[in-house]
TrEMBL record:
GO terms for molecular function: zinc ion binding. The keyword Metal-binding applies. This is C2H2-type domain-containing protein. Keywords: Metal-binding, Zinc, Zinc-finger. It comes from Trichogramma kaykai. Pfam families: zf-C2H2 (PF00096). The lineage of its organism: Eukaryota, Metazoa, Ecdysozoa, Arthropoda, Hexapoda. InterPro entries: Znf_C2H2_sf, Znf_C2H2_type.
Amino acid sequence: MPRAVVATAPEFETIFVPLGLDNEEEEESSSSSTTQPTAAEQLANNACSRCNKSYVRIQHLRRHIKFECGMPPRFACYYCPQRCKLKDNLLKHVRKLHAVEAKGRFKIYIDGVAKDQP
């Protein structure tokens, strides 16, 4: 929508006034526009049917259903008994707690098979 500049002098605040709308028309048009759902509404829409855990993003719910919900942990740490359901979580664990032992090469078990990670 085109706007007109009312004042631009340094001692004045710059004010933009929409052209072609009264204040009443502007209020009506802004209230009738569609709004994005709130985070609480998105959480309610993206809840797991098995465990009721909810997510804001649908892709996180899909990942949860595919790899986490009701699944045993697939990834085991080579250096301690820690097990994780997601590979990224185990890599964070190894980098944080076993950086000296790993010396830049991280070894994890995926479904019982040892794998080296860069």
